[in-house]
Amino acid sequence: MDTDRIDRIRLVLRREKCDAIVLRLPENIVMATGAWPMNGFSFAIFTAEAGPAALVAPSCEDEEMCGCWAEDIKYFTWPRLEMRNPQEAIRDALCEIVRRYKLGRACIGYEGSFDCVAPSHNAGEARVPCESSNAMLKSIVPTARWLDATELLHELRSTKTSREIARLRAAHRVAKFGLERFHEAATPGVSEAAMAATVYEACLTRGVRLPGVRHINVYPQVSSGPNAHRAWRPIVTTGRRRLRRQWGGLLGQRGDL
Predict the structure, then answer these.
(1) Which of 17, 86, 198, 231 can bridge 223 by disulfide, Cβ–Cβ 3.0-4.6 Å?
(2) Predicted TM-score of the model (pTM)
(3) Where are the extended beta strands (E) located within the chain?
(4) Per residue of the chain (257 residues), what is the pLDDT tens digit?
């Protein structure tokens, strides 16, 4: 448990006279509870008094939440053919949490203005807070005072704890595995796609062996030849072009763990 992070969140909530905060974005949930949602379908509740109070998560993620700091984890059935409407199940769980922590007339923060977000582990299918999900939250506690906590969360995330710095260093080690493989594989005739694949393989197979690392997402991008001069962009096209001796190749990659 990152007690430094928990204390920092509590301090900021009390400073802003905010009793609790509801989190939906994976990047904020992992900061506040230590759990990285697999599908982005989770809700976390952090209170100024109790700290990481509760996490509402899909039942399919039960084995992934063993490191969660929340006092209470409530699972709803998803995805199953016989499941009830997951939105109704989430609502019921949140209602119970509101009653338990007496948040009926509280000041509650929410993620109201994020326009650039990081994905869950399932990066190909993003779920983000929107008007309908925020409306659901407000309908659960209509007597609460709702506060857009976007700037508050940005402030909290701008400085890292010792535990978070250690995680960043682990991410850098994973990136190093990929860069080393890139230099080994950068030979004439190899395609950009093949190079990206071998970089991904190195990051994944070697990265999961690092102490404390359970999940890794990496996004290698290789750009070569006439297209290499545009490799400064946040995203480049990686295709079937093959490296030639007179060409250079540039690797860019992003990662989460």
Answers:
(1) 231
(2) 0.89
(3) 20-23, 43-47, 51-58, 72-76, 107-110, 145-148, 217-224, 249-256
(4) 999 999 999 999 999 999 999 999 999 999 999 999 988 899 999 999 999 999 999 999 888 888 899 999 999 999 888 889 989 999 999 999 999 999 999 999 999 999 889 888 888 888 888 889 999 999 999 999 999 999 999 999 999 999 999 999 999 999 999 999 999 988 889 999 999 999 999 999 999 999 988 888 898 988 887 777 777 777 778 889 888 876 555 555 555 55
Number of domains the chain contains: 2
149, 178: one domain:
no
Look at the chain and count its residues.
257
Residues 172, 112 share a domain = no
Q: Which of 219, 171, 61, 18 is nearest to 33 (CA)?
A: 61
Cis before 79? omega within 30: yes
Tell whether 81 and 208 lie within a shared domain.
Answer: no
Residue 240 tokens read as 């079937």
